[in-house]
Each structure stands twice: as structure tokens, then as C-alpha cells.
Amino acid sequence: MTATLDLRASLHGLPGVDKVGVEARAAALATRSVKTTAKAAAIDLAIRMVDLTTLEGADTPGKVRALAAKALRPDPADPTCPHVGAVCVYPAMVPYVAEVLAGSGVHLASVATAFPSGQAPLDVKLADTRDAVAAGADEIDMVISRGAFLAGRYDHVFEEIVAVKEACGDAHLKVILETGELATYDNVRRASWLAMLAGADFIKTSTGKVPVAATLPVTLVMLEAVRDFRARTGRQVGVKPAGGIKTTKDAIKYLVMINETVGDDWLDPAWFRFGASSLLNDLLMQRTKLTTGHYAGPDYFTLD
Amino acid sequence: MFEYAPAPESRSVVDIAPSYGLFINGTFEAPGSTGGVFKTVNPATEEVLAEVSAAGSEDVDRAVAAARSAFGPWSALPGAERAKYLFRIARIIQERSRELAVLESLDNGKPIKESRDVDLPLVAAHFFYYAGWADKLEYAGFGASPRPIGVAAQVIPWNFPLLMLAWKIAPALATGNTVVLKPAETTPLTALFFADICRQADLPPGVVNIITGAGETGRTLVEHPGVDKVAFTGSTEVGRQIARSVAGTGKRLTLELGGKAANIVFDDAPIDQAVEGIVNGIFFNQGHVCCAGSRLLVQESAYDEVMESLKRRMATLRLGDPLDKNTDIGAINSAEQLERIRVLTDAGSQEGAERWSPPCELPAQGFWFAPTIFTGVTQAHRIAREEIFGPVLSVLTFRTPAEAIEKANNTPYGLSAGIWSEKGSLILAVADKLRAGVIWANTFNKFDPTSPFGGYKESGYGREGGRHGLEAYLG
User: What reaction does this enzyme carry out catalytically (chain A) (predicted)?
Assistant: First the structure.
């Protein structure tokens, strides 16, 4: 009871978010013009930040192996192209990806905890997490119980995250807030703090499985949250927008936002990731355009 | 650090002639006039952009006479016909907006992202808005058959050259008046390009006349006996002189003068957005804004958080080439204005306020001033009382809403104010007691043609914009 009161008081004591203001700020940052050398540097950084993702019922061992191979060498024609940040798959697919990625420096992320709905008993979620880690995942993307959060049962959500974090062992925990279901920016800020207080290593916007995924203003609110959390506690937490980021132009808008909100410390794959699939090919296409001066057609980039 | 490579907007979209004459009775006269000529420079580089004619008293006579003879037929046109011209002007402005934005940034020094995303869209919106009123004046609430006044003398400032022109010309023409307008001597070019747009729109000759020149030209114009209405935007000092010269002549007068707006941040404010609002309130357009939020009043319980956040945010402001699309703060409009800012900020330091600016490299050429805040400011400091009209913020604190209201109102000005709080009842209660013409809640420096704008006390009288803006041009 006391824990509930404390959490509620802390989360509701955070400064409010003005919707009009935060959307205007995000839109203003999106008008930055990033060209030539700045664009080339941004593209390489964005590639290194991609969590190359496939989360389909139809995923097969062959498909995820191909994806892992692409993660290692996104552009087979150009050895200077960096590898991506991680591959992200369902727990059942983890062993196949682990074989390919072993020793490469590319991380292996797996969604656990009854992804994407989070509607399962806690012991099932914990078993899901342990299995994924045992199979070789070093990053776990969990979903919070949005129902409990929206009902104000913050202690329930908090305890779930603590338990999953424990089940992760050494694996990094990314907590998916599913911001598209949280309805307000105030809730996004509160859920961010709740996840960080419970031990999240990363906070992530979305599963990609509901209509509204990552947006610039939501990510801005989350970046402000990790910035303020570090100022208060000394602990740095990463941010991962996921879903709906499809073009180089989109990715650069996020990088500009990091640059002008939290700065250098987060401009690194250790602290910022893009949950995306089709984004990578657009980054590669733009990268080739910058080096060669012309666009190559989609047939020159691998489909995975 | 993620450095952005230079991203300059091309200036080749605008073709500036070496010299310009006056625009009287629908034609550009030959350059040079009875008042001589003067040069207009790019304040970011001090490069001369063009030579412009200074209208002398004979030129003013001709301009007023042209407006007078155009007045009869223009005011007799059905409102719907006048609207067609205004709609046409609005559309041409939209079509030529890139050219006009680049020109505005060159002549004024403001960042291209502001001229492109704020000034030009608002300019077109004002013409569209007042075009809509032209055939509905009987329903505007100013009598069953409102009549135009006659010839309007309009004198505008250099901070928003084309936007202030739109604020003046659009309602004047919609209501059937004719116009002689004088742009500021440091920023005459967009008004001269607007003259060309009037020709392009086939506006009847004499309805709009643009005469360039300095203070003397402005004085001759407002004191001209052939003028029925004077509209001025600029400094309180000049506004006072105009009020004196117009007194007893029967001329109608509206004045939009200086300001020293309070931006009040309560401790329950949305802090991140409030900081954006503070930055936008004082650093937008280099602080060359009469309604700028130049006095920040912060509740003591939120002071540390707000100041830390504000300083961090100010460190990301990008000062430099106004034509670079990533520039946030451009050049100060003139050497004279820069000097004024220096004098007042030096006074701030001497009087004991603490000065802070983020690390900021200023270009060697041109007129520049780093974004600056003063803390420890009291109501007695000059920087808390006088309008600086530059990127300089004076920070004061308060404990209670009553103290905030008292400090906010303790100024000879009363143009605008801002309130930041998540509590609606507090916003309404405070807004009710602030003596300012415009009050923004949880935002700042937002303009819209449908919304009236104007001041209390030494910030002037009369309203521009909205239905209220028609009144100044109807008899």
C-alpha cells in the first residue's frame, strides 16, 4: 500500500507535458537540414543503431538466418558499411540467429513476456524470458501490462518489470511501453519513469503490432525522461523507438532530436536503437547514393 | 557532437536591382528623388544590397495625391470586387513566397526558417483573411453601412517588414481605403517587391503607394494634410511624436508601440515546453519583437529547474548565416540597434545583474549579439524596465500569484504576457488581472490573422487583426 502511494506520488509529481508544445518542438526539430558529410555520418550511425527485426508468425529458421547474415554485412558490395546494432526475433528463433552472430559484436535481442499483448500470467512471462536468454539472447524486449498501467496499478507493473529484469540475468532489458495505447504524453512520461525506476536498461516505444507506433513527439518525451532520470539518479538508460520508421529521412530526424535534446552521450548504439526492418535498405540505398552519386534500384539491395 | 553541414538556401531565387525608385500611382519612378538616396545593407555581411530613394516632401505630395484620386473609384467598388484583388495578391504572395522569404532574410537578417515558416505564411494568411471581410463589412458590427476613411498613411518597422505591411495594407484595402506606406529605412526591399506584386495583380494605380525613406520621410507623410488616417508601428518615442503632431487635426490614429512582456512560469508548468516557450518568447527573430517575452518571472520553487533547463537549451541555439536552414538566431538588423542592445546590457551588468551567454562564436562581419540572460534582476534595473529589442532576457522571481501579477503589471507597457501552468483555473485567474493586450497561455509568440493584437498603456492603442482590426479603417 505504501509502495503504491509512493509510486503514484512520484509519477504524478512529474512535470506535465503540454501536447501542443511537445508536438511543435518535435516538428521544429524535424525541419533541420542534414546534408553532405553530416548526412553520410548520420547514415552510418543510424545503420549501427538498427535492431533488424522480424516478428512474424511465418518466420522460419532460414529466414532469420538470412536476416542475421544481413545484420553482419548489410551491404555485401561495400566492406566499409558498418554492421547493425542487433537482430530482434521471437524466442523460438533465437538459437538459429545465435549460430550466425556468435562472436560478431552484433547483439541478439528477443521479444519475451507474451509479446505483443503482455496478456499472460507472470510465471509464463518469466519462463519465456529465461528460455530466450538460455538460447543465446543478450537483450530482452519485454512489454508492460498496459491494462494494469492504465488502471493505475503501478505497483503491479513495477513488480513485473523487476521480476523480468531478474530473469534476464546479464541480458539487457528493454521495456516496451506501447505508447500507442497509453493515450497521453503524461502517461508516456510516467511509464518511462516507472520502467526506469524498476530497472529498465532501455525504454522502447512500441511493439509495432498496434496502429500507432513510434512518433517523434513520443520519443522526445522519452528522451527528456532518460535525461532527467540520469540527472536525478546518475544511471543512464537507452531509448528505442520502434515501428513506422522506414526512411533515412525519418531516421535522421531522430538523430537530430537526440543531438539537440540529450546530446552526444546518447548518440551511440549502446544508448539508442531503431526497431525497424525496411529502414535498413533505405539507409543502404542513400549510403550508396552518397558514395557513387546515383541511386541504385531496389534490386541491388538484398531482401530478407 | 553531430555537426550539421552548411545548408544554405539559394539566393539566386531573388533578383535585386542595383537601385529602386518610389512606387507612386502604379508605376516605379526613376531612382533618385527629392530626398536623395540611401543604401540598404545585408546586416549579416554589411554588403550593400541596393540603393533606395528617399522620398522628399514633393514626393510625399504626389503619393498622397495619387492615393486621394484612387480613393473614389476604389471605395465605390463592390466589396466582392475589392476581395478579388486581395485574394489575387494573397495567391501571388504564396507563389513567390520562397523569393520573398530569401529577400526578407537578406535585408533583415532573420533566419530563413523564420521568414519561410512564420513570416510568409502569415503574410498570405492576412490577405486571405481580410479578403474574406471585404464583402461582409455591413455584418462586422460597426454599423449598417460602414464607410472607409480615405487615405491611410502607414509607417512600419524593420522587425517584420513584409508582415507589418500585410497587417496594415490588407485591412485598409478590404475596407475601401487607399494607402501610402513607408517601410523602415533598413528594410525597404520586400515592400518594393510587394509594389511589383500589386502591379502583377492589376491593382488600380494609386490604391497602394510605397515610398521609401528614413524618419524625415515618415514625419512628412504622417503630418501631410491630405492624410485621413495614420497607422504606425514602432518605438514608443516616435509614437508619442506622431500622437502630438496628429492631435487636433481630425486624423484617425492607431499606434502599436513597444513592450516589455512578462512571461510567467508557475511551478506546476510543463517545464520542458515552458522552456521552449521562454526561448521562443525572447530569441525568436533575435528578440526584435515588440511583444517579446523579455521579462521572465519564475516561481521560486521551480527556479533552479527552469534555469538549468533554459541554459542547457540555449546552448543548442545555432547563431549564424541567416540563409542557412539550420540557423536559429540571425543577425541584429543594424549597427544602431546593436549599439542600443550593448548600452542596455552594459547597464545591466553595471547595475549588478548577473550576465550569462552560452559559448557562441560570432561571425567577424555583420551585426551580431549572442543570446543572453540576466539573473538577479530587480524591478529597479533598466533591463527590467526598458525595451531592449534584442536577444536579451531578464529573469526575476516571485513566490505567489499575487506577486507575479503585481510585477508583471509594474511596467509602462502592456502589449503581451505569457502564463505557464497546468492548472486552468490559475491561468484564467491570472490572465484576468494582467493588463496586456495579448495573453498567451502555455505558448508564446503565436499569431493569427483572426486574432486582434494591440496594447495597453505605452504599448499603444487600436487593434490590428481579426474583426477588431477593421474598426481602425471604418468611419
Answer: 2-deoxy-D-ribose 5-phosphate = D-glyceraldehyde 3-phosphate + acetaldehyde
pLDDT tens for A126-145 read 999 999 999 999 999 999 99
Indicate if B250 and B347 belong to the same structural domain.
no
Q: Residue A198: which CATH number?
A: 3.20.20.70
Instruction: Find the closest chain B residue to A232 by CA distance.
Output: B305
Asked whether the beta carbons of residue A18 and residue B270 sit closer than 8 angstroms, the reply is: yes
Extended strands (E) in A27-82? 50-53
> Is A165 noted as a catalytic residue in this protein?
no
Average pLDDT over every residue of A261-266: 96
C-alpha torsion B237→B240→B242→B244, nearest 10:
-140
Would the CB atoms of A17 and B270 count as touching at under 8 Å?
A: yes
Q: Are residues B227 and B375 in the same domain?
A: no
Tell me what pLDDT residue A4 has: 65
Q: Residue B80, exposed/middle/buried by CB under 10 A (0-12, 13-18, 19+)?
A: exposed
Q: What is the pLDDT of residues B123-147, one digit of tens each?
A: 999 999 999 999 999 999 999 999 9
Is B4 a domain residue? no
- Domain-embedded: residue B328: yes
Min CA distance, A156 vs chain B (Å)?
Answer: 27
Query: Is the pLDDT reported for residue B406 higher than 90?
Result: yes
Kind plus residue range of the DSSP H or E element containing B309: helix B303-314
Q: Look up the ipTM and state it.
A: 0.94
CA torsion through residues B203, B206, B207, B209, sign: positive
Q: How many domains does chain B have?
A: 2
Nearest to B344 by CA among B277, B294, B396, B397: B294
Are the beta carbons of B5 and A25 separated by less than 8 Å? no
- Global pTM reads 0.96
Q: Is residue A223 part of a domain?
A: yes
Q: Is A204 a catalytic residue?
A: yes
Q: Please indicate, yes or no, whether residues B201 and B302 belong to a single structural domain of this protein.
A: no
Report the number of distinct structural domains present in chain A: 1
User: Contact A33/B443, CB-based, under 8 Å?
Assistant: no
Distance (Å) from the alpha carbon of B268 to chain A's nearest alpha carbon: 7
Which residues of B are less than 8 Å from A259 in CB distance?
A: 1-2
The boundaries of the domain holding residue B142 are 11-257+458-471
A240, A253, A282, A304: the catalytic one is A240
Query: Cα distance from A250 to chain B (closest Cα, Å)?
Result: 16
